[in-house]
Structures are given as structure tokens and as C-alpha cells.
Amino acid sequence: MPVISPAFTLVEMLVVISIIGLLAAIAIPTINSMRPNPVVAATRQLLDDVGRARQLAISQRTTVYMVFISTNLSDSFMNAHPSPSAADQAMVTNLYDKQLTGYTFVSLRSIGDQPGQGIPRYLAGWRTLPQGSYISPEKFSNPTNLVLNIYTNGSTQPAFQVFGFNAANNIPFPFETNSTSSSWIFLPYVAFNGLGQCISGPNGQPELIPLTQGNLLFPRDASTKVAQAGIPQFIESPPGNHTNNYSLVSIDALTGRAHIEYKQVQ
Q1: Which of 41, 52, 171, 201 could anchor a disulfide with 207, C-beta 3.0 to 4.6 Å?
Q2: 10 Å Cβ neighbour count for 179?
Q3: Domain ranges of the chain
Q4: Whole-prediction pTM value?
Q5: Under 8 Å CB-to-CB from 65, ≥6 apart: which residues?
Q6: Are 54 and 256 in contact (CB under 8 A)?
Q7: Nearest by Cα to 41 from 164, 134, 140
């Protein structure tokens, strides 16, 4: 007798397809939630490094500056150094793609320096925040002035008021050994004294550093893809998430200790 091969009916196939679709609908949100959130990672990294700057200040018994790179790096550098050395220019070129994401730690004097003759030292290499995250540009826009209000729960009064970074031009840049100028570019910074107190930001108020999610598009050489001089284009994704879904590193002025302020799901 001929053997009849088993086959699926149309109804059975539709049932199987429906089950696969149902499983996919359940699994995809779970998989998406497991993806690393760049702002969460950036906030955690910045929080840890703010703590590191504070500990460096305490251990060195001196003021430590956590300096950042703003979006006017190329113009600021050329104004301060119209004829830079090749080494200085190469170093600054390497920092073009670290605007809004790069930072390091600097002290102007340390234990053992002669009175009145402090020796500037870079205490670490330049670090960058994880790709897909950056410090909100408002923080760099107007030094020491109110630059951003963040509202919560429909309130008409801001829950957080963000002031621009302090900025100083007495920090050697781009090298600690760069002594060719009595003043360098203005570098945004957060500073801690030898007691670990935060001595930057609005008087008596927390220093707030807002982070956001999105892409930074830097001008690049067409052939080498190396970042070139110019202001990057920042594309926040989704737009407005630095206020609608805020994530702030908050540094207490008196203790210098930092924590995270973030929007919680109601």
C-alpha cells in the first residue's frame, strides 16, 4: 500500500504562526530592556569619576580640577595659541571628538611643591563617556549662570536648577608641561579642595551635571575619518530626554559626595 506522508493542515499552520507571534511579542520587550542604556552607563561612570576626583583632592591635600571639553575647543585654542607647536596641535586634534564627553583630572600644586611654585600635573589620561551619551550642551553654554530648569510631576516650579560649569584659564592645556602662555583656554571644571568639599557651582547649592542620550556628529576628514576642527552636531534621541527623562549627577557642596537624581516611573 502506498505510504501517505503526514502534512499540516492550513488551520494547524495558522495556529503555529500565531503561537510564534505571541512568543515574539512577549520576548521582544524583555530583550529590549536588557540592552545597555548609554545614559545609565554614563551616569554611573561619571558618578564614580567624580568620587575619584574628590578622593584625589583628599589624598593630595590640594585642589583637584575635573576639567571637561566644551564645543568651542578649536576656536578657543587658536585664540590662545595663534601659532601652536606641532605637538600641541596634534594633542588638540585628538581631543576634537571628545567635546561634550571628555574629561580628566588636574592639580596645580601637590605635596612637596615649593611655596608659591606649584607644579601642574595631569592626574589621569583623558576619559570619555560611553558612546550614545553626552553631557547636555546647556551645561557649557553660560558659565556660572542658570542654564536649565527641570520640572517634575507637572509642577510650575523647577525641581532642579542647573547652572553652567565654572571655567578657568589658569590650567595648562593641552599638556601639563605647556608653559608657553600665561593663560590658556577656558576649561569648564568641577573642583574639590583638600577637605573633599566641592568648591565649584552655585554657592551652597549642589553642582548638577545633566546627561542625555543621542549621537554626536563631528566634522571629519573625508579620507582619514579623523575629527576636524568645528562644533559637533548633537542629535538627542528622543528629543528632550535630558529634561523629560532626566539623569543628573548631583554633587553636594559641603561634603563633595555625589549621587544620582533621575526620573522615576510613577
Answers
A1: 201
A2: 10
A3: 48-262
A4: 0.83
A5: 53, 105, 106, 107, 108, 168, 171, 187, 189, 190, 191
A6: yes
A7: 134
